[in-house]
TrEMBL record:
Gene that encodes the chain: LOC100284682
Family statement drawn from the similarity comment of this UniProt entry: Belongs to the mTERF family.
Any one GO cellular component localisation term in the record: chloroplast
SMART domains attached to this UniProt entry: Mterf
One annotated GO molecular function: nucleic acid binding
The species this protein was found in: Zea mays (Maize)
Protein name: Mitochondrial transcription termination factor family protein
GO BP: chloroplast organization; DNA-templated transcription termination
Keywords for this protein: Transcription, Transcription regulation, Transcription termination, Transit peptide
């Protein structure tokens, strides 16, 4: 009897084993199918497909989404992020799709913010400092990393009275976003005090720093060194030239400054001492590239026919565009001289220095009957279409 029972048991296992294997394969296939289906949704129970949401809803690239997803991958649904996006693109702010993508790529945690307690409150604080919705949108484009964590009242409470307007503030931030993070008491205010000690008013400092915003955010020791070097140029303090000197040396290390003086001396065929005296007359010449200065000097000497002393005495002429100002105005001068409508000894610097409207009223429009094509030729030259 025992032998019969054992035999029947073995036969039963032989029949059930294929069925068990088949059931296991079916179960595994079903599990894979369910996982695949779940990964295509944003908010399945207990799972949030962060990468897909960031790409298809927020407009990020796959690479950006991979970096940003770690900040939101623990979510169970997209409901809060949907509310944030709805608010940011709504009438209160009106961010575009591109602006949303930029903001989320730089600061994905913005999607975790409370609309009422954080975002709506931050917009109200911006507006309290004079920002319009368009200017707040501009701030998002310029400094997306700071939109959520920027200390609005502390920073704007200082910058708005100092700079005078949100537009000027945004201009500076575009060039130097360290204005948003620099320590006001340890960096910014000491730098302002150093500039005031050189005789600059708050208004002049504000204007100066539009072109040189790093004057406010660099370490005070560095700014002190810049002011010493500007003073060594021999330009009197409390003058516009001194502010130009500060602008010039702020962007140049001492080695580059010395190198530029030497190269300009070689271009002009004069001594470095003569170039130093020229730079005193217009320190901003140092901001021009050596290629630009060389081409301008070659044109002035070889085409216009002025000497080196002319350039040394009037360095501002090197600040004008060669193609769009010097060349077309010299063209008009030569045409008028060839027609006997201008003295041969007329100063080219006078023609170069006056505004475009005055130049046209004096030297182009009065001759439209005698030289009907002059205005068109001059206009074409101002667009860079006259060969040098």
């Amino acid at each position: 009897m025992l032998r019969l029972q054992k035999h029947l048991s073995l036969r039963l296992q032989e029949h059930l084993l294929p069925l068990h294997r088949s059931a296991s394969l079916i179960q595994l296939s079903l599990q894979r199918s369910l996982l695949s289906t779940g990964s295509a949704t944003y908010s399945s129970p207990g799972h949030f497909a962060a990468d897909d949401y960031l790409v298809s809803t927020c407009g990020l690239t796959r690479e950006q989404a991979a970096n940003a997803a770690k900040c939101i991958s623990h979510w169970k649904s997209s409901s809060n992020a949907d509310a944030v996006l709805s608010f940011l693109t709504g009438p209160a702010l009106g961010l575009s799709n591109a602006e949303i993508a930029l903001l989320v790529a730089k600061d994905p945690r913005v999607l975790s913010c409370s609309v009422d307690n954080t975002l709506r409150a931050r917009l109200a604080r911006f507006r309290s400092h004079g920002f319009s919705a368009a200017q707040i949108s501009e701030f998002v484009r310029v400094a997306p990393c700071f939109f959520r964590k920027f200390n609005i009242d502390v920073k704007l409470g200082f910058w708005m009275p100092f700079l005078g307007s949100p537009d000027r503030f945004l201009r500076l931030v575009k060039r130097n976003f360290y204005l948003l993070s620099s320590d006001l008491d340890k960096v910014v205010k000491p730098n302002i005090q150093l500039l005031q000690e050189c005789g600059l008013s708050i208004q002049e400092i504000g204007s100066l720093c539009v072109a040189n915003p790093r004057l406010l955010t660099s370490k005070p020791d560095r700014i002190r060194a810049v002011l010493v070097r500007a003073g060594e140029m021999g330009v009197p303090r409390k003058t516009l030239l001194f502010r130009h000197a500060v602008t010039a040396v702020a962007g140049l290390c001492p080695e580059t400054f010395a190198s530029k003086l030497k190269m300009m001396a070689n271009i002009l065929g004069c001594s470095e001492a003569e170039v130093a005296r020229m730079v005193q007359k217009n320190p901003l010449v140092l901001r021009r590239s050596m290629e630009t200065i060389q081409r301008a000097c070659e044109f002035l000497i070889n085409v216009v026919g002025v000497g080196t002393n002319f350039i040394l005495d009037k360095p501002t002429i090197l600040m004008y565009s060669l193609e769009r100002r010097l060349v077309p105005r010299h063209y008009v001068m030569k045409v008028l001289q060839d027609k006997g409508l201008m003295r041969k000894d007329h100063s080219f610097y006078t023609l170069a220095a006056i505004s475009a409207s005055v130049f046209c009223s004096r030297y182009v429009h009065p001759h439209k009957n005698v030289l009907p094509n002059l205005a068109a030729a001059y206009a074409s030259g101002c667009n860079g279409k006259i060969a040098i």
